[in-house]
Amino acid sequence: MTMKLVMLSGVLALVAGTSMLAQAPAVAAPQPQMPSAPAAPADPFPKVDLKNFTADSPSREEVDSFLKALWGYDENRIWSVAAILKTPAPGVAKVVVYVADKTRAAKGTQTVFYTTPDGKHAIAEGIIDFGAKPFAETRKVLQERATGAAQGAAGKDLMLVEFADLQCPHCKDAQETMNNLAQDFPQARIVYENFPLAEIHPYATRAAAEGVCIRKAKGDAAFFQYVQGVYERQGALTVESGEAALAAAATAAGADPKAAAACAATPAARAEVDAESKLGKDIGVDQTPMLAVNGHLLPLGGIPYEVLKRIVAYQAGQDGIEVHLQPTLSNLK
Fold this sequence. Notes:
- By secondary structure, the chain is of the alpha+beta class.
- The protein has two domains: about 10-135, no CATH class; about 135-320, 3-Layer(aba) Sandwich (Glutaredoxin).
- It has ten helices and ten strands.
- The protein has helices at about 10-15, 60-70, 135-145, 170-185, 205-220, 220-230, 240-250, 255-265, 265-285, 305-320, and strands spanning about 75-85, 95-100, 110-115, 120-125, 125-130, 150, 160-165, 190-195, 290-295, 295-300.
- The protein has a five-stranded antiparallel beta sheet, with helices on one face.
- A hairpin with a 3-residue loop joins strand 4 (about 120-125) and strand 5 (about 125-130).
- Helix 5 packs antiparallel against helix 6, helix 5 (about 205-220) crosses helix 9 and helix 6 packs antiparallel against helix 7.
- The model is unreliable at about 1-40 (pLDDT under 50).
């Protein structure tokens, strides 16, 4: 479910590898090199032509570092930086990359993005931070401002921050993923931030405000019980039964439903929900459910769990945090 913020469809190709970025006109280059020995696989990439490197920045090394930060979790993904070209816009460079899977006998696929003059952002169909540590700034913001209900580790070295809407069906489905992450990464601090899409989910803001009040009255554990209760009753969030559904979820969390409802109507409760939403918007969240892994934004609905685990472990390693992946039922043989 997308909002009217920056679209991530192009960036997701960089993040999750589920699709490639927008195609662009091919860069002048000779045909792929033939293997030097019959038994060796063909080179999937065109030979690099230095004439295709006309921009002053970024350098090939900087682009490689950026792509490693995004794609390094996938040991089978290989790439070649084919061009870094000047554009008519001062300081804006066009970067052309060929990407392939080393387990497949296929030519590389061309993908294109642009870098901004300050060297801090890359643009495809959307915008993502650029550099060898592209998620560091967002990670710092979340360490300072992601103060929603939390479970897991007390420290903030490895933070998994979920932005969710209590009336969003995909957010309900994502809770199994979040529970699995809590089991597989006990060293992670898992934070829930409200991001209600009020224009399409009329009970989302009210439910979020009640959750804020229940957390203040009963603590984080009660908040997560309330969230579970709302998701279980999500189908009843209608004009006819919405009040009863939220009251039942509050009761299941050990809270007083009347007190929670009264508190949710206060400006203070709504302001806290608004602050959590603003945090999401400030870092580029444009859909729910969205997960920030130490600042690396990922759409929870579009990534297989085993891939998500690898991304979490890889990002942790990039940030100097040692994690040990344990086998799960989905990958035991």
